[in-house]
Design a protein that fits this description.
The chain is globular. The longest helix has 26 residues. α1 packs parallel to α3. A 7-stranded mixed sheet has the order 10-9-8-7-11-12-13, sandwiched between helices. It has 13 helices and 13 strands. By secondary structure, the protein is α/β, with parallel strands linked by helices. The chain has 2 domains: about 150 residues, Rossmann fold (3-Layer(aba) Sandwich), CATH 3.40.50; about 150 residues, NAD(P)-binding Rossmann-like Domain (Rossmann fold, 3-Layer(aba) Sandwich), CATH 3.40.50. The structure holds NADPH dihydro-nicotinamide-adenine-dinucleotide phosphate and 2-oxoglutaric acid. 2-oxoglutaric acid binds next to β4, α3 and α11. The site of 2-oxoglutaric acid has 14 residues, from β4, α3 and α11. It comes from Nocardioides albus. Keywords: NAD, Nucleotide-binding, Oxidoreductase. One of its GO terms (molecular function) is nucleotide binding. Belongs to the Glu/Leu/Phe/Val dehydrogenases family. It holds the Pfam family ELFV_dehydrog.
């Protein structure tokens, strides 16, 4: 029998530094002082769990999983669970902090949390993924719950993962607890509209951003990095808005055409082949070229840190709408700003997912379900309101959209702390 020992954590990039820098900038603008920064920079609770896995071939691997609850001053923790080979504690801490700001910015009654397992799901069978999910859920079960912390899908997880998490948690409680996770299948209490919600929200604010810089969405051009749950829907909704999507990529490669990709045909192709690579409706390009394509709008919708000082100067898009969390490093932000590129920050641009997760949680807690049209309408209304509020704040205070959004969110979280009692 083979036993694999846990791999050491990766340390090459640290998105936590970027998240803490953004917080420090907001605390300075708000004049809240170093004590508040120290308090808000530190996650309230974090757990690291060991996940022993019996593989289908009989060998044993021991994986590492995390759940970080960054803040719960405004309500239960909320945030996705990621299955990815790059997951480490600092990444989860950063993602949890961004969830706090995102929920506060969109005024959903949650704090921020995030979880992950350090595993590449592509190398595991469905049965193995189920065992990983169930053991991970059992280990974090004391910390989660509809009033405590509510996980959802993220990179490498999906509605099936959420169904397993809900089932495992419910078995432990002796009854079905629909509200413990969101992003579930419709058949077990999921919400209509959740699957496309992050992408719909990205496109709603991206279209506003294009108009803001004087570009009509109809006939504008775009490139999308990542063709998963967020990127694929973003490409589809952009096409529906009349935007020509010229280039898309996934982890295996990229495809480009100057006329605009037929997104419906591309989706059908990906359903069969599992990748955008070799799509006959376009020409292959290098994955990184998607980020520097000659387009009006760039939607990075894959992973963190893809736009860095090494390539930020070559970004030709006029607007970058962050479908992913943290795709632009803090240093690259400055380069883009100096070059006149408008960045719509992640905590605004990709907040549609958690907004509809909130709607799902409300529906599950009331056992009363809304129509898809109701969900979509309420989502877009919230996204546009948030866009207008952030734009107004940024304009009034001469801040970037990211700093404006972070200030608005940090202030709301700080006020919740203040009224509850700051340093007990
Ligand atoms: N799902 C959600 O509701 C939300 C997600 N987000 C954020 O959006 C981002 C994407 O999440 P999601 O779509 O759910 O994840 P998925 O796992 O569904 O999709 C990720 C996609 O990114 C691709 N990818 C990974 N690395 C690269 C790379 N280096 N270059 C190009 N493509 C790459 C993957 O390729 P392949 O398919 O080949 O593996 C896949 O197409 C993450 O940052 C996530 O945190 C934010 C808010 C909500
Ligand atoms: O839907 C949710 O609860 C969280 C989604 C998420 O992880 C994110 O917005 O980054």
């Amino acid at each position: 029998m083979t036993v694999t020992i846990e791999k050491p954590e990766a340390t090459e990039t640290n998105v936590l530094d970027d998240a803490r820098t953004q917080l420090a900038q907001a605390v300075e603008v708000l004049g809240l002082g170093p004590e508040v920064h120290a308090m808000l920079a530190a996650p309230r609770r974090e757990v690291s769990v060991s996940i022993p896995l019996r593989r289908d071939d009989g060998s044993v691997e021991v994986l590492r999983g995390y759940r970080v609850q960054h803040n719960y001053s405004r309500g239960p923790g909320k945030g996705g669970v990621r299955f990815d080979a790059r997951v480490d504690l600092d990444e989860v801490r950063a993602l949890a902090m961004w969830m706090t700001w995102k929920c506060a910015l969109l005024d959903v009654p949650y704090g921020g949390a995030k979880g992950g397992v350090r595993v590449d799901p592509r190398g595991y069978s469905k049965a193995e993924l189920e065992r990983i999910t169930r053991r991970y859920t059992s280990e974090i079960a004391p910390l989660i719950g509809p009033n405590q912390d509510i996980p959802a899908p993220d990179v490498g997880t999906d509605e099936q993962t959420m169904a397993w998490m809900m089932d495992t948690y419910s078995v432990g409680r002796g009854h079905t607890v629909l509200g413990v996770v969101t992003g579930k299948p419709i058949s077990v209490g999921g919400s209509l509209g959740r699957a496309g919600s992050t992408s719909r929200g990205v496109v709603a604010v991206a279209v506003e951003a294009l108009r803001h810089v004087g570009i009509a969405p109809e006939g504008a051009t775009a490139a999308v990095q990542g063709f998963g749950k967020v990127g694929r829907g973003a490409a589809r909704f952009l096409a529906q808005e009349g935007v020509r999507v010229l280039a898309v990529s996934d982890v295996n490669g990229a495809v480009h055409t100057a006329d605009g990709l037929d997104i419906a045909a591309l989706e059908a192709y990906v359903d069969v082949t599992g990748s955008v690579v070799d799509f006959p409706g376009g020409a292959p390009i290098q994955s990184e070229e998607v980020l520097t394509a000659d387009v009006d709008l760039l939607v990075p919708a894959a992973v963190e840190g893809v736009i860095h000082t090494g390539n930020a100067g070559q970004v030709r898009a006029r607007v970058v709408a962050e479908g992913a969390n943290g795709p632009v490093t803090t240093a690259a932000d400055e380069v883009l700003s100096a070059n006149g590129v408008l960045v719509v920050p992640d905590i605004l641009a990709n907040a549609g997912g958690v907004v509809v997760s909130y709607f799902e949680w409300v529906q599950a807690n009331q056992s009363y379900w809304w129509s898809e049209a109701e969900v979509d309408e309420r989502l877009v209304e919230r996204m546009i309101r948030a866009w207008n509020d952030v734009l107004a704040y940024a304009t009034a205070n001469q801040l970037s959209l990211r700093l404006a959004a972070t200030c608005m969110a940090v202030e709301r979280v700080y006020r919740a702390h203040e009224v509850r009692g700051l340093y007990p």
